[in-house]
Design goal:
about 350 residues, mainly alpha, two-stranded antiparallel sheet, about 0% strand
Length: about 350
């Protein structure tokens, strides 16, 4: 079992304090960089989509997992980022500038939504964000001069100067770079005073008030940053789709993002990535398994939705901490074997807020 003894002030700020972690993450990054060189063109194309969903999942995790605000409308921010990026590139704005601008536009939309939305919480907040997603979907479909309406909007090819990113391998590296930058940025944000304020608001708003945290400002800031990150994912999604229509940003995408966050493990950036990988790869896995299933079952409508719901129910019942919680248990098993005890991770009784003062 490893015990950390900090002898310097900055020891607790290290992202990878142990050599084993640096070796593992270095090997993972090397494998991801070499994958397009040894695999077929199909693999980089699929993984690019996985990376895009990872970025969107990280944005929602900041809001739901670290601030405690439930959103069922993050597909709207993906759509805003995608259409803003496509429109800016159509006006001649280069891609290195249009992508951050698309994130800023989506972040501003999150700010406008967050100001009135922070007045409610829980189920009512989820309903407000879902209504916002429906409004954005209808607005995109009817704003023909900007979005092309239901006819659609073509996206200019991805290009940085004279360097074309139209090939699957080049776009794969772009998505990987954006994912790494977003992950490191959010990781450092959560280690700052702003991130600690987010977590304080999530754990107890009353305690956050007593500590001098501006709860409303923290909630609005979380909405804005989360929407901005999701808007960057939308900009990448625009190049992945190459042609934008409102049908690509429905409520189903919002529900998939929520599944990624819950199944991955609330309150963990690693969990957001693990959940995005699982949910994004499930349709491909189901399509591979369908030929092996009975014909009557394989042709049933809604098979993917049934599998998503089943996986969510199993995680809620047997692993509430998600994939990240399972990974932490596996790591503890490997570090403490053969002294590992199952009771170490025994779930404690949880009380309702009304029961805490009895």
């Amino acid at each position: 079992m490893r015990f950390d003894y900090h002898t310097r002030y900055r020891d607790s700020f290290k992202l990878l304090p142990h050599t084993s972690a640096r070796v593992l993450y270095g090997a993972l990054m090397a494998a991801l960089l070499l994958l397009p060189l040894v695999g077929s063109t199909f693999v980089p194309g699929e993984l690019s989509y996985v990376f895009i969903l990872c970025v969107a999942s990280l944005g929602l995790m900041l809001l739901t997992g670290y601030t405690g605000q439930v959103s069922l409308g993050h597909a709207a921010f993906v759509a805003i980022g995608a259409y803003a990026h496509a429109w800016l590139m159509g006006k001649g704005v280069p891609m290195p500038a249009s992508m951050p601008l698309a994130g800023l536009i989506a972040g501003f939309a999150g700010l406008l939504l967050g100001i009135p939305a922070i007045r409610v919480s829980g189920l009512y907040l989820a309903m407000v964000t879902m209504a916002f997603a429906i409004i954005v979907e209808q607005l995109i479909g009817r704003w023909n001069s900007v979005t092309g309406g239901f006819t659609g909007l073509a996206v200019a090819p991805a290009r940085i100067g004279d360097w074309s990113l139209g090939s699957p391998a080049a776009f794969y590296y772009l998505c990987l770079a954006v994912l790494v930058l977003v992950f490191l940025g959010l990781l450092n944000l959560l280690r700052s005073s702003i991130g600690r304020a987010f977590m304080g608001v999530r754990d107890s708003e009353a305690a956050a008030y007593s500590l001098g945290i501006h709860v409303r400002a923290a909630k609005v800031a979380a909405f804005s940053v989360s929407a901005g990150v999701t808007g960057v994912a939308g900009a990448l999604m625009a190049h992945h789709l190459q042609y934008l229509t409102p049908d690509g940003f429905t409520l189903l995408l919002s529900l998939e993002l929520v599944l990624m966050v819950v199944i991955g493990g609330l309150g963990s950036l690693r969990g957001a990535i693990l959940g995005a990988i699982l949910i994004s790869m499930l349709p491909t896995a189901i399509s591979r398994v369908k030929p092996l299933m009975p014909e009557r079952m394989a042709t049933q409508f809604g098979l993917e939705i049934f599998v998503f719901g089943l996986i969510l129910a199993l995680f809620v019942l047997f692993e509430p901490n998600g994939l990240n919680g399972r990974w932490l248990k596996l790591r503890a098993l490997l570090q403490s074997f053969p002294l590992y005890r199952r009771d170490t991770f025994k779930r404690q009784k949880r009380y309702m807020k009304s029961e805490r003062h009895r």
